[in-house]
Amino acid sequence: MFDVILFDLDGTLTESAPGIINSVRRVYRHYGLPEATDGELRRFIGPPLIESFGRYCGFSEEKAKEAVGVYREYFAEKGLFENAVYPGIPKCLEALRTAGKRLAVATSKPQPFCDRILEHFDLEKYFDAVVGIPLDNEKMSKAEVIGLALKALCKEKPSSAVMVGDREYDVLGAAKNGIPCVGVLYGYGARDELERAGAAAICENVGQLCSFLLK
To answer: Has domain 4-15+83-213 been given CATH number 3.90.1150.10?
Structure first.
């Protein structure tokens, strides 16, 4: 069904919540903000950090940019690897490659961090392209990232491409590029979020996702 498959990173390939939560908690402490629960800090997983610091902390754009720097001080040293590959993902990626699918990563995580994570977990070998956001363009949208990933794989817009992700940003970004999105429930988004955004299909686990993509 699909020849080109784009994957989100956080909540789709890797369970990255611990490192992100710990990094955001460092920001809260740095600015003397009230202690937040893990559940509240999970809201930072998915959207661009500048957007989240503005929305959830009430920071101005300038202060949000500064907060991103504080976040990265912890994330680059420790948070990056407070992370784990979801069980079954390597086997799924191997099966997709064997079936002749072209694979890419399309993530709102900064490109250098994305590259280090994929290398650390030996996942980079499965992908024909890896696209994150540049360190100097924090406001790049998920739709822009997906568009760049499609261009990296295909000179012309593919007729059989799909995005795989766990949040509404993945679904909406895919739609802006004219491709469907398969939502996954083992990540950080809920079924109703994915359904409202217009996910073409929803898979509960990695095995179900792999079977769907190999149809």
So the answer is: no
* Domain range list for the chain: 4-15+83-213, 17-81
Q: Please write down the HEC assignment for all residues of 34-56.
A: CCCCHHHHHHHCCCCHHHHHHHH
Burial class (CB in 10 A: 0-12, 13-18, 19+), 172: middle
Encode burial over 87-126: b for 16+ CB neighbours within 10 A, e otherwise: eebbebbeebeeeebbbbbbbbbbbebbeebbeebebeeb
Strand locations in 151-213, DSSP E?
Answer: 161-165, 181-184, 201-203
Rounded to two decimals, what is the model's pTM? 0.91
Query: In CATH terms, is domain 17-81 a member of 1.10.150.240?
Result: yes
Residue 122 annotated in active site: no
Residue from 63, 62, 55 nearest 32 by CA: 63
Residues 213, 2 contacting (CB under 8 angstroms): yes
Burial of residue 63 (number of CB atoms within 10 Å: 0-12, 13-18, 19+): middle
Q: Which of 3, 8, 10, 115 is catalytic?
A: 8
What CA–CA distance (Å, rounded) separates 40 from 28? 12
Q: What is the DSSP code string of 68-113?
A: HHHHHHHHHHTGGGS-EEPTTHHHHHHHHHHTT-EEEEEEEEEHHH
Q: What is the pLDDT of residues 6-62, one digit of tens each?
A: 999 999 999 999 999 999 999 999 999 999 999 999 999 878 899 999 999 999 999
